[in-house]
Amino acid sequence: MAVYTPLNKKEAGKVAEEFGLGDLISYSGIRNGSVNTHYLLETKRGRFFVKLDEVKSELEVKQELELLLFLKRQGFPCPQPLKSKNGKHYHEFHGKCLSLSRYVDGVELPLEKLTPTHLEVLGHALADLHLIGRGYKKGIDNRFGFVKIVAIYREARRHLPSHLRNIVRVLDDEVSYLENYLDNNLPKGIIHGDLFPDNVKFKGSRLVGIIDFEAACRGKLIYDLATAVNALCYVDGRYRIDRFEALISGYESLRPLSLPEWDSFPNELRFSALRFTVTRIRDFFLRKMNESQRNYKDFKEFFERLLILRREKTGGMEDILLAMATGYDYRKYQKSKPSK
Questions:
Q1: Burial of 216 per CB tally in 10 Å (0-12, 13-18, 19+)
Q2: Distinct helix (H) and strand (E) counts, the chain
Q3: Which is more confident, 132 or 284?
Q4: Do residue 93 and residue 118 come from a single domain?
Q5: Are residues 327 and 217 part of one domain?
Q6: pLDDT per residue over 236-283, tens digit each?
Q7: What is the DSSP string of 62-116?
Q8: Do 139 and 94 belong to one domain?
């Protein structure tokens, strides 16, 4: 979330009118985020979330909105796009697609405030998304698959300064490694692709909303879980086994992982770390702009994770790898163990 396209009071009032929201009381830009513009509108009918897509085509916007409508019909806690008076879920604004949903009340907890209970709930919700997504038959292209991330990296690499040559060396090597060891014959379906703390809302320990489906697409389910691990289980420069176990426990309570998924987990963690390193290099490090418009996201946060995952730096990965190596057999044994 960010503010790239300005919206003045008259325009905000017109948006409220077009979507039948009543008189505008207030509006404000939401600075957090990266690629799109977001505003919060308050009218007599409540609070609403405005999204201006800065990068997606009209077709891609329609695909995202159709997915949200499907998920909402299945009872998944996501935003519900609203229709304007002309019956559409988006309309054109300065050459971009503008959509609107009711604001999801709740608290976005900082990473360190997420307890094992929160993480278990999030794991359960992610598995629920993956199971519900099996019934979604429309395709959504993965804008952040391996081939596309490599293309983004190769373009960005041309513009990286010489003092980052050690980082370039690692990224070059990682691309070569993953090219040979990523497994594409794994369960696929609808994934969120960006399950970070600022994309989930709680009331106490109850999950009330998962937001920001910007990266949602059809992809590998284990990649989605790996991204959640990288986002939620890494604190103060270390992977935390207690957080990992809580997240996985919640996930497997609905959808147990297969042996191939367990085997591929370490490499999916590495690819997830590579993906966010590369896109943050492009979107933040190389994209010069007024930083008052957005919340800067440092690519080195995920590069540090990548070094740990590559075993080039200590950081709690040994416990995670052991849990992955034994997780499938242990859980299989537990399920088949006779009751007393």
A1: buried
A2: 10, 11
A3: 132
A4: no
A5: yes
A6: 999 999 999 999 999 999 999 999 999 999 999 999 999 999 999 999
A7: HHHHHHHHHHHHTT-SS--BPP-TTS-SEEEETTEEEEEEE---SB---GGG--H
A8: no
d(CA 233, CA 319): 12
Count of domains observed in the chain: 2
pTM value is 0.93
Phi, psi of 123 (to 5 degrees): -60, -45
Query: Do the domain assignments include residue 170?
Result: yes
Q: What is the pLDDT of residues 49-84, one digit of tens each?
A: 999 999 999 999 999 999 999 999 999 999 999 999
What residue has token string 């003045």? 8
Give yes or no: residues 128 and 90 share one domain: no
Question: Tokens standing for 33?
Answer: 């985020």
The type of residue at 175 is V
**What are the CA-CA distances from residue 212 to residues 36, 68, 227 (Å)?**
10, 10, 15
Q: Please tell me whether residue 96 adopts helix, strand or coil conformation.
A: strand
Pair (209, 250) in one structural domain: yes
Instruction: Give me 69's structure tokens.
Output: 């409508």
Tell me, what CATH number does 210's domain have? 3.90.1200.10
Q: Among the listed ranges 79-83, 149-153, 293-297, which one has the minimum average pLDDT value?
A: 293-297
Q: Is residue 1 part of a domain?
A: no
Asked whether residue 86 falls in the same domain as residue 190, the answer is no
Domain extent, residue 48, equals 9-102
Q: Pick from 40, 71, 102: which residue ends a domain?
A: 102
